[in-house]
Amino acid sequence: MTSISPAPRPLFSELLPAEFTGNLSFLLARTRQDLAEEMDAVFDGDGLGIRHYAILSLLFRRGGLRQTDIAAVMSLDRTTTMKVMDELEGRGLLQRSRHSEDRRANAIDLTEAGRAWRERHMNRVLEQEQRFLSSLTPGERTLLQELLLKLVSGVHQRRNADHHED
Amino acid sequence: MTSISPAPRPLFSELLPAEFTGNLSFLLARTRQDLAEEMDAVFDGDGLGIRHYAILSLLFRRGGLRQTDIAAVMSLDRTTTMKVMDELEGRGLLQRSRHSEDRRANAIDLTEAGRAWRERHMNRVLEQEQRFLSSLTPGERTLLQELLLKLVSGVHQRRNADHHED
DNA sequence: TATTGTTATACTCTATAACTATA
DNA sequence: TATAGTTATAGAGTATAACAATA
């Protein structure tokens, strides 16, 4: 390297706060991507990821959902949901059966293996989340999740309202 | 089981808070996607989007960046950055010139058209952001951005530290 | 040897369109 | 007519590999 130190190479830490405070889209995209990359480490190897974990957690709390329900909550297309269901069913982590009240629909439930898989990954998921949040205080971590939840719920309510105006 | 009315179809607003509080990956992914969809409305028509706006804003505050600098800040691959630069240069919004201190590198600067484009879209970007944030109080909106900025900076510092350990 | 920009190529993710069986 | 699941296909976005110029 040079001794007299030429023009300083712009550093990430120098540019980021100055340029992007207020740029919510960037901050959200970057945060999501950073976390996604770190979450990959938890699941490395078996071809499943944090999305599969989230769906199994959803089914853990409430079984018998239709694929369209899962699609709505996860904000996925029907066909994308189909693919994810195939991946999970192919590994024996959930099962599709006939819905008792609508024979067009599937009723999706966890299998015992699915419950075990979720339980086996749960601690590492939570650890990785906390590691990702380590630059925030405990209070800030809770607050962040509350704010995000408010936003997601707010968007959903607003879109429902718009839809009912038709 | 239910009495008379058929089993209630699980509502988004019913499932979301119960199942996903604590699922940071889901909340971040969902929030980012919701905002991205709403931001599309601002740019509909010209093939550019919020990412282009962010890059032009970065260059507005600090010109003469290399493509690798932009790639680092935006967390993009070199080749992806290349494509985005082509899109912006093709519309005359930025220009590539020889870097004065490293002849391998490009120095990227806004053109006048680029400055105008950014200015023309700025108000609608900010409006859409505020609309997206409308379920939060003003204080919460500021706080959210601060928390996200802390997280992104924290991840960056941690990765740099890891890297220097090699 | 390593880095910058570039090109060509491959891969991943997701959505669109069309079909079937039910409602 | 509309909806749930399914399948095949196409598109967007991104990364990998290789090369030339320069450090």
Automatic annotation (TrEMBL), chains A, B:
**Gene3D superfamilies for this protein:** Winged helix-like DNA-binding domain superfamily/Winged helix DNA-binding domain
Alphabetized PROSITE patterns for the sequence: HTH_MARR_1 (PS01117), HTH_MARR_2 (PS50995)
A GO MF label:
DNA-binding transcription factor activity
Q: Highest taxon of the source?
A: Bacteria
Q: Specify the HTH marR-type domain's residue ranges.
A: 21-153
Keyword tags: DNA-binding, Transcription, Transcription regulation
Supply the Pfam families for this chain: MarR
From the UniProt record, give one GO term of the biological process aspect: response to stress
Is Transcription among the key words of this record? yes
Instruction: Quote the PANTHER family the UniProt record gives.
Output: HTH-TYPE TRANSCRIPTIONAL REPRESSOR YETL, TRANSCRIPTIONAL REGULATOR, MARR FAMILY
The identity of this protein, by name, is HTH marR-type domain-containing protein
Q: Which organism is it from?
A: Solimonas fluminis
Lineage of the organism: Bacteria, Pseudomonadati, Pseudomonadota, Gammaproteobacteria, Nevskiales
